[in-house]
Amino acid sequence: MANYTPMIQQYLEIKRQYTDAFLFFRLGDFYELFFEDAVLASRELEITLTGREGGGEERIPMCGVPHHSAENYISQLLQKGFKVAICEQVEDPKVAKGVVKREVTRMITPGTMIEGKWLHDKENNYLVAITAVAGKAAIAACDLSTGEMYVTALSTMYRAMEEAMQYRPSELLLCDIATDELKGKGLPPHMPVTSLAHNEVNHLAVDEQYQEQAGSLEEASRLAINALLQYVGQTQKRALSHMRTLNCYVADEFLQMDPFSRRNLELTETIRDKSKKGSLLWLLDKTETAMGGRLLRRWIERPLMNRQEIERRYDAVQALQADMLLRSDVRVALDHVYDLERLAGRISYGNANARDLVQLRHSLEAIPKLRKMLLATEEAALIEVAEEMDDCQEVAQFLTETLVEEPPLSVREGGLIKEGYDEYLDKLRLASREGKIWIAQLEQAERQITGIRSLKVGFNKVFGYYIEVSKANLAHLPEGRYERKQTLTNAERYVTPELKEKEALILEAEEKLVELEYQLFTNIRLEVANHIPRIQELAERVARIDALQSFATVGEERRFVRPTITDEGDMRILDGRHAVVEAVLDQEKYVANDIYMNQEERNILLITGPNMAGKSTYMRQMALIAVIAQIGCFVPAREAHISLIDQIFTRIGAADDLVGGFSTFMVEMLETRNALVKATPRSLILLDEIGRGTSTYDGMALAQAVIEYIQEHIGAKTLFSTHYHELTDLDKKLKGVINVHARCEERDGKLLFLHKIEEGKADKSYGIHVAELAEMPIEVISRAREILSGLEGKEREPQPEQLSLEILWGQEEGSPVLQKDRKDAAPVREENASKEVEPVHEETRIVESIQVHSDEMDVILELKDLDLNQMTPLQALIQLSEWNSRLRKKK
What we know:
Elements: H1 6-15, E1 22-27, E2 30-34, H2 35-45, E3 50-52, E4 60-66, H3 70-79, E5 84-89, E6 102-108, E7 127-133, E8 136-143, E9 148-154, H4 157-166, E10 171-175, E11 193-196, H5 205-209, H6 211-214, H7 219-236, E12 247-248, E13 256-257, H8 259-265, H9 280-284, H10 290-301, H11 307-322, H12 324-334, H13 340-349, H14 354-375, H15 380-387, H16 393-402, H17 423-450, E14 456-460, E15 464-470, E16 483-487, E17 491-495, H18 497-529, H19 532-558, E18 564-566, E19 571-576, H20 579-585, E20 593-597, E21 604-608, H21 615-630, E22 639-643, E23 647-651, H22 664-678, E24 684-688, H23 696-714, E25 717-721, H24 730-733, E26 737-747, E27 750-759, H25 767-773, H26 778-796, H27 800-809, H28 816-831, H29 842-848, H30 854-865, H31 873-888
Parallel strand pairs: 1-5, 7-10, 9-12, 10-11, 13-23, 18-22, 21-25, 21-26, 23-24, 24-25
Antiparallel strand pairs: 1-2, 2-4, 3-4, 5-6, 7-8, 8-9, 14-15, 15-17, 16-17, 19-20, 19-22, 26-27
């Protein structure tokens, strides 16, 4: 290192403190990166890798980005999980002796972004800390861009990881927890993770920043908050006044859904491409403000269990949905409100520009009208929110008096402050303005003196003001009047004593003018920062009204109705619809379905029917209606009585986890186990095709065992979709198990999906019909029909095991068939006694002796499978006549 130049030595000294981050080292108008940082950054950012001499034996790898466009490059690195340390020049190069002093002014990490293109308007950017103390876990989450801070304690680390993932964090902070401890507990493979030791944490931080709430916090929660505050302080290197409110909550007070269920129900993004379109959020988001959109997302991710708060939201939605003019006026008013939360964050951080403050002013100016129209309603829920709105009109007035209407983007170029706000600033502006008028008049005066019509007075930042004369006209210049300043190819540039004097006055005035405007602007920003808590509280009220009007707008457009919330355990939904599917279908007619479940007689719905008939949609529909109801929104149905649900578990669709080493069937079993272990009688379980990932008998046995366990040990409401038709007999064995099926009709050899769920079991699966709809090759379809026909015929043949079970032990004692078969059996055994045959089981010998014609057995089997409840008297008479005819032919 001793051979490196002083600047490179300075770089290496700073880099040693930030080994886990890219060091953006400011050199003039560029941020430069050196050594390994340069090599890696050039590859990740796809920028040119060069080199420079630095005093060592070899050239030092180097790459750089312009400081004015650095934000784009920093965002790219953050999206890939990297950290960036910003190293700025902290002294004026003009007065510096030796190497300009530099310091890291901020470290940007994926979880501490406060602005930039990576931040989405209607999404939070959370940093989440996880800790564990004395067998109790806790998480703390914050969004620096909005100032939100949340904390909760959990019983286990697995539960803490589930809760942490609900925030969809951009970065995890682990305090005294090894990353390996979180493997298998839901830690995403590419999640940026930072570890912090217990002794690195300021354990008094929570007491200093959140005095009123600190005393009620558990030890694990205190550590989580302290770790978060410590990390934020280390990276941001400044106090953030907008992080003043701490939201303590109990996770179990909200409807819980594990990560599997959230994914399967597509609450905020679709499974296929993780886009918003096609999710429940996409359907419900008619918000006009960014903060309203973020609040709506939080409501969807955390449905309520508090019946009183749900009803309060219903009251507000009902008032807005019933009054179209009010709802329209509210939406227009909200359209003029910018993102108050993130504006407050930037003001607190000290990087808000004049345009941000003008946006704040416009937003505040829209509040009185919004407040007035809400107060004019007769709905208490809306009036309450309006009364809590502090419109901050003195802040709006202050900004009106200080800032121009359309300020420049940069705060270092002047043109920010209104005339009349500061007397000295006005004087400087007058001096600058008069000087420029003199310069403009100078050009006309010099043209008259010299007679050179092409003479002009100009300015550039290097040479200042000058008089330019073409070389063809140099002979017309008066002797001794001009002083040569610069020679060009076709012209000469001059100055005069008067021009030099005016230039000094103008430039001095402009320099002072810009500096004074910047100082005045920073003072204005600091004054506004004193009102940040008020602005944040106002933002919460505005966001709430925005989310509620969004519910009302969607409810009106989609014919949603107010549900009745109960604690009785009954679910009764008439003409319920899957709102997202209905919206995607658009003009196509959606087939509505009823759902009725209760705690005693209809606890488990066993759903059969072919693929593509709508079984999974029906199941998801039930869960989504419950979620929509518990976030305070009206529901897609003609009528709905909803009993509050505490947890939703789903096992829908096929998915594997190859990274985690789990097959599709293993994932299926893990998700099912999660439901069986955690569900309560108030939970809702959706299970789709349990057991299909293994052999038929294994799968069928598992499926039946799961149903029995839910009914006997949990009592949760369950929708169980299956192709194992053998399971439909459970309705006779288990109280509360009810068969329903997705109705289909076969017309002219074609399968017609009616998407209607009806009572009873399906008659068959129609698998080949579905394959035909998928346009499988005709040869495959034809061969499949042949194989199916053979298998079905084989099933009807009297197989030894089947007959031994169904005829010998399946009949009641004293059955005429059984008695007849036993009398006929003996002679057959005597006749074959002398033959040498392989030993067989006793029941097989009995079966082989039964003399039943195949047609008679067919009739017996058909009779056994017959469901009389699904037949009319005429159909039953026709069936009896057919059997009679077939049996008479054998006599």
